[in-house]
Amino acid sequence: MSLSVLILGYGSIGRRHAKILKNKFNINNITIFTKQKIAEFKTISSLQEIKKLNPNYIIICSSTSKHFRHLKFVEKNFKNKIVLIEKPIFDKYRKLKIKKNRVYVGYNLRFNPIINYIKKIIYKKKIFDVKIHCGSYLPNWRKNINYKKSSSAQKLLGGGVVLDLSHEIDYARWLFGKIKVKFVKIGKLSNLDIDTEDFLKLYGNIGKANLSVDLNYYSRISKRFVSIDGTNFSIFADLIKYEIEIVKKNYFFNKKFYKSSRDNTYFQQHKAILNGKTENLCDYNFALDTIKIIDKIKKWKKN
Predict the structure, then answer these.
(1) Is 285 a domain residue?
(2) Which residues neighbour 21 within 8 Å (Cβ) at sequence distance 6 or greater?
(3) Residue 187 domain boundaries
(4) How many helices, marked H, and strands, marked E, lie in the chain?
(5) pLDDT tens figures, 54-99
(6) Same domain, 116 and 243
(7) Is residue 36 part of a domain?
(8) What is the DSSP string of 127-166?
(9) Separation between Cα atoms, residue 4 and residue 24, nearest integer Å
(10) How much is the average pLDDT of 143-151?
């Protein structure tokens, strides 16, 4: 594919994007904005050098705290570009009008086959209750870096469980509708050497259903699931085991999905962007609304 790609940032996610675009899409014209020395790709180390480039596709995957600055720079200096900015879009809500470029946000969990399956089977169904859980052990996330030095562990870099695991807020809104927050408990419970929050418990409503969201950095048994109860049906979807159970009146159904590599949802996301198929993509304004909810969560008054 004869595209020119610019990737801002070369942490674990930047490396993943570069590898997928090179190996799966046969894109060789890839430039990385980083201070690291990389043999495999051309690199630049200053924003001013970016102005000399004319990339078709721009991917912003620097630390979350730099997203606003980098997107603002792209919007000011380029037009008619496709831009993918990694989730979360910003570290907090910020005003920035996008008029010259097409911007999408990297909530690739929307390309998980189970999430897509749920979206189809709950269509026009009455839902009473939604429970969402994501818990795992932060030191196990990235093998190439000490967790203490990761962006997840540092407030200044936009870390913390709410921003890191905002996939759950995004897909909840995408599947079920508007979130109304009624109660939040957030803070740090574990002995992890981080200065960010390591858990969130949220209760409220989503659409006309009850909602609970439980996120953490400290669970040594990784769990990621969504449980749904509605009129004459219940669903339990395990996003780690790639299984879904559906119980209806006089009916039980268990479906196992093919567990592809972790790269697959990123591949499918890039494929959708490059082919102009936007129905599963998170657009800029939707992501901004998610950040507004996250701001409300993080500012919730402690009782």
Answers:
(1) no
(2) 5, 27, 30, 270
(3) 112-249
(4) 8, 15
(5) 999 999 999 999 999 999 999 999 999 999 999 999 999 999 999 9
(6) yes
(7) yes
(8) EEEEEEEEEEEGGGS-TTS-GGGSGGG-GGGT-SHHHHTT
(9) 15
(10) 82
∠ CA(278), CA(165), CA(182), 5° rounding? 100
Quote the pTM value. Answer: 0.93
Distances (CA, A) of 142 to 65, 147, 250: 19, 7, 44
Task: Tell me what pLDDT residue 129 has.
Answer: 98
212: helix, strand or coil: strand
CA distance 212 to 176: 13
Mean local confidence (pLDDT), 167-171: 97
Is the domain of 17 the same as that of 127?
no
Which single residue is written with the structure tokens 């962006």? 151
Beta-carbon contacts of residue 194 (< 8 Å; ≥ 6 apart):
138, 147, 148, 152, 153, 154, 159, 188, 217
Cα distances (Å, whole numbers) of residue 7 to 14, 20, 45:
7, 12, 12
Radius of gyration of the chain (CA): 20
CATH number at residue 85: 3.40.50.720
Q: Is residue 15 part of a domain?
A: yes
pLDDT of residue 303: 45
85 C-beta neighbours (distance < 10 Å), count:
26
- Mean pLDDT on 23-32: 95
- Listed residue (163, 145, 259) closest to 217, CA to CA: 163
Number of domains comprising the chain = 2
